[in-house]
Write a structure and sequence with these properties.
This protein is of the alpha+beta class. The protein has 2 domains: 1-30; 35-171, Beta Barrel (Lipocalin). 17% of the residues lie in helices and 54% in strands.
Length: 173
């Protein structure tokens, strides 16, 4: 009788654990792979810079829950670069953005969309502290050749309303 009780206890804990591991593997396999080199399609993106043409190349490396993004762009004849590391398992990541912005981001999959929520802080030239909250949604087209990023941002104390943008990238063959 004692062995039956021990066996039942083991089954109660082992089978649900195995099922959860299988579910995690299935979820990992069903998420899209964003890896590759992507070029910004300025004509499909919004808002488009009114000042000058922007060229942007995005390199993505995705391995398990780690996603590394390296973006290089040219605007007004100046070259810029930024590297960001995200973890799609909900772990937080601290990244450094433009002009000394420090951003804390949490990323997770919602169906086939990668959603990143980030909070950034920086101090402007006149020593005013600024805060920005951003939600980025990354989605891959069915054919795997178009990557769309939709962004909703709140910045204060400067802006009173939310701003949104859409960046469309085409895969480099």
């Amino acid at each position: 009788m004692r062995y039956v009780t021990i066996a039942l206890w083991l089954l109660m804990f082992v089978i649900p654990g195995a099922a959860q591991n299988e579910q995690r593997q299935t979820q990992t396999q069903s998420t899209p792979d964003f890896s590759g080199t992507w070029v910004l399609d300025e004509h499909q993106s919004y808002p488009v810079s009114k000042r000058t043409k922007i060229s942007s190349i995005l390199n993505l490396a995705q391995r398990d829950s780690e996603i590394r993004m390296t973006e290089r762009w040219t605007m007004d004849g100046q070259n810029f670069a930024r590297e960001v590391v995200l973890y799609s398992d909900g772990r937080g990541a601290e990244n450094y953005g433009y002009n000394g912005h420090t951003c804390n981001a949490k990323t997770e999959w919602k169906a086939k969309t990668l959603v990143t929520r980030s909070k950034c802080t920086y101090t402007s030239r006149n020593y005013v502290r600024h805060y920005e909250e951003t939600v980025d949604e990354w989605r891959l087209s069915k054919d795997g050749n178009t990557l769309t990023k939709r962004t909703l941002s709140l910045l204060w104390p400067n802006d009173l309303g939310a701003s949104w943008s859409k960046q469309v990238y085409n895969r480099v063959p």
